[in-house]
Each structure stands twice: as C-alpha cells, then as structure tokens.
Amino acid sequence: MNAVGVATSGTRMLAAATLLEHGTEDQKRKYLRRILTGEDAWCQLFSEPGSGSDLAGSTSRADFDGENWLINGQKVWTTSAHHAEFGILLARTDWDVPKHQGLSFFVLDMKQKGVEVQQLRQMNGHASFNQVFFTDAVIPPENLVSELGNGWAVAMTTLAHERRGADGLRTQNRDSGLDGPIYEEER
User: Fold this and answer.
1) 162 counts as catalytic
2) Radius of gyration of the chain from Cα atoms?
C-alpha cells in the first residue's frame, strides 16, 4: 500500500511528457515504457556557456551529413548527465533564419563516442551538475523530435511541463495528509 512508486518529476518525466506531445509513434514505443519504469536515466541538454538565459541563442550545432545528424558544441549546468543514458537536446540546424526558427530537438544517446561529460564540483563537494561536450556525436534521423526547425516549440513544451511539475510538487507535499516533521514543515 505504501510502496514507493515511479518518480513523477525529473528530466526523464519531462522527456516522457515532451515525447507524448511531439514524438513519433516509434519514439513513444522505444522510449516511454523505459522512462516510466526508470530503466533509463535522462538529462536535459539546453543551457550553454555564454548564452545565459537566452535558450534561443543556442550555438551547439546539428549538421546532417546525408545519413545522420552530427552534433558539435557544448552544454553546461546539465543535471545528472553523468548518469544519463539519453538526453533531450536542443541544437541549431539552420543559421540562416531567425534564431527561434533555426532550432531542432533531438533524443541523444549519452553513452556514445563523441559525447564527453565532465562533472562540475560545487562548493559543498557535490557534483550533480555537468558540462557536456559534443564532437561529431551521431544522432540518427529517427531521433529528430517533431519537424526540422520546430525545436523552439518542443523546448517550450518541455519547460512548461518543468514549471507545472515544480508547482505540483509543492502542492503535492502540502496536501499529502501524511504525518511527520518533513510534512509538517510544508504545511
């Protein structure tokens, strides 16, 4: 009755919500069950050095070589990238259109050649954040989420779910009805 259930927050759930809304049927079949069962860890590859909060200013690039997408660039402040099997990635696919239109959204295999994860040690000794470097990392065409150039809209879906999830956690804890110091502090 009081068994621990599947986590309802975190990047893997953001990936699930985003794939439910924008993914192909094949992507849903391939990833959703494993996300929900916790078999695969995920990370969100959005932030870049030098871009601050300008997500549309992404300079990590995805170039199609005729067979696959080749990813080059860097992301930073990526939580749990060192544990992740997959990442949801926002990358620039077109430099000749306004910046919000030149982005595409991908599922990236984090364990492949060309993906280097470096943990960032914090003042408290923890290292949950990472910087991630891409050097000709390969993404097959079937891992493009939604249409080419629609990455901004897909990323906004991810961020909307992130904001809703954070609000839901606050409400969930407050309304839990459970006893104990941690729950009493939330009330």
Assistant:
1) yes
2) 18
